[in-house]
Amino acid sequence: MQFNFEKHIPEEEKPELEEEKTQEQFDAEILKEADKLGVSLAELQKDIESYGGVEKFKENFEKNYTDGGGSTYLQMNRAGERVSHMKSEERNRKSEAKGLAVIGGILTAITAVMVSSINQGGNIELENLRHPLEILQQEWNDGFMGKVGVGIVTFFATTGVGGFIGAIKQGIEARRTKRKRKTEELKFKMTGTEVK
Amino acid sequence: MKLEEVKALAEKVKSGTATAQEELALLQFLNKGVEEMRVFIKEVMSKSE
After folding, report:
1. Count of other CB atoms within 10 angstroms of residue A58
2. Total domains in the fold of chain A
3. Mutate: best of B23, B29, B31, partner A, most A CBs <10 A
4. What is the SS3 string spanning chain B?
5. Taking CB atoms and an 8 Å limit, are A60 and B48 in contact across chains?
6. pLDDT attached to residue A195
7. Is the Cβ of B10 closer than 8 Å to some Cβ of chain A?
8. Residue A16 forms part of a structural domain
9. Which of B21, B27, B35 to mutate to test the interface with A (most CBs of A within 10 A)?
10. pLDDT tens digit string along A62-99?
11. Does the beta carbon of A28 lie under 8 angstroms from any beta carbon of chain B?
12. Which H/E stretch holds residue A120?
């Protein structure tokens, strides 16, 4: 028998329920986004391959976006060093700053999703990927942004997307179940009735 | 989304305290970021040509 939960909840407590309804929709969207991420990462890998591979990225990046010694223009500016600004270099600096900012955000976000998934599901495949990402995060924090740029491209180019996304989805499911359980406990406290 | 906001969301997801909405926001950022990264990679790769 389906229990009509809303009927038994006082008006002032209904926002909780509406939130829960929306949460279900969020959960469905989360899984959709994870699938989308799988497709995007697979396309990213194809791109890297078709443009000439990680080595070419490394070579081009170091040649055009760094001072030749591994420092990016961004770091040189932070250190207060003077950089001669030809027009093309100016454009490179801007695009590099934007590109590296995106990469920094991706690194932070993907590490968080992965660590959380490991904590929830204890997946071995993800555990093996954790260390390289944590090293990249440390290098990013230390200011070696150019190096991290190359590192993250290498990471995505060489990581099996299917297994990676599958493991992340396991974590998502675990978090979803945990949230659902919490909501059900709340419902039980509010009504004293077990909800199916 | 600013990097600081990403960091704050990331911390919540990492500690398991994020709501479904926050987790979704982080994944959406990730997807958008990967698309932007593809553009950047293409730009870098085409430099020597």
Report:
1. 18
2. 1
3. B23
4. CCHHHHHHHHHHHHHCCCCHHHHHHHHHHHHHHHHHHHHHHHHHHCCCC
5. yes
6. 52
7. yes
8. no
9. B27
10. 777 765 555 555 554 555 444 444 445 666 667 777 77
11. no
12. helix A87-121
Interface pTM (ipTM) of the complex?
Answer: 0.89
Asked if residue A10 is part of any domain, the answer here is no
What stretches of chain A show up as alpha helix (H) in DSSP? 14-51, 53-65, 73-78, 87-121, 124-141, 145-158, 161-191
Tokens 């440390």 correspond to: A138
Q: Is A141 part of a structural domain of the chain?
A: yes
- Kindly determine whether residue B37 and residue A178, on different chains, have CB atoms separated by under 8 Å: no
Range of A162's domain? Answer: 23-186
In a domain, A139, yes or no: yes
**What are the 10-residue block averages of pLDDT along chain B, 49 residues in total?**
86 86 92 91 79
